[in-house]
Amino acid sequence: MGQVAIAFLVGGAICVIGQILLDFVKLTPAHVMSILVASGAVLDGLGLYDPLIDFAGAGATVPITSFGHALYHGAWQEAEQNGLIGLITGIFEVPSAGISAAIAFSFFASLIFRPKG
């Protein structure tokens, strides 16, 4: 099976889990998002998320679970280097590039597509 198919199936499975939580457990979207972010952090803490990224590529880095992975990963790296203060700064340092890119791309898209409202 090709890498694109694996990424599609893994990313789709993560989305299916979120949709099941929305439909059958009757959680709000905010609760589901929090669960998926926390799941990514827990899986990274158990050492399981990096092998998932190696296996699935974008299928594991694009969904919201990857944000939890980035938060945990950044906090842990900085805590090892700088102690307790690194725990706090690492949460902001590693994921900031992705958040900044999302804000910049959203701004440029709003210039091109003229949002309503």
Strand content: under 5%
Q: Distance between termini?
A: 45 Å
Q: Name the shape in a single word.
A: globular
Helicity, as a percent range: over 70%
Q: Helix count?
A: 7
Low-pLDDT regions: none
Q: Report Rg.
A: 16 Å
- Helix/strand/pairing category: mainly alpha
How many separate domains? 1
Order of helices and strands: HHHHHHH
Number of strands: 0
How is the main sheet built? none
| Arithmetic mean of pLDDT | 87
Protein name: Stage V sporulation protein AE
Transmembrane segments: 6-25, 32-49, 55-72, 84-113
Pfam family, one: SpoVAC_SpoVAEB
Keywords: Membrane, Transmembrane, Transmembrane helix
Structure description:
- This is Stage V sporulation protein AE.
- It holds the Pfam family SpoVAC_SpoVAEB.
- InterPro entries: Spore_V_AE (IPR014204), SpoVA (IPR005562).
- By secondary structure, the protein is mainly alpha-helical.
- The protein has helices at residues 3-23, 29-45, 49-56, 58-61, 65-82, 84-93, 96-113.
- Helix 5 (65-82) packs antiparallel against helix 6 (84-93).
- The radius of gyration is 16 Å and the shape is globular.
- The model has no long low-confidence stretch (mean pLDDT 87).
Topology:
Elements: H1 3-23, H2 29-45, H3 49-56, H4 58-61, H5 65-82, H6 84-93, H7 96-113
Helix pairs in contact: 1-2, 2-5, 5-6
Keywords: Membrane, Transmembrane, Transmembrane helix
Pfam families: SpoVAC_SpoVAEB
Protein name: Stage V sporulation protein AE
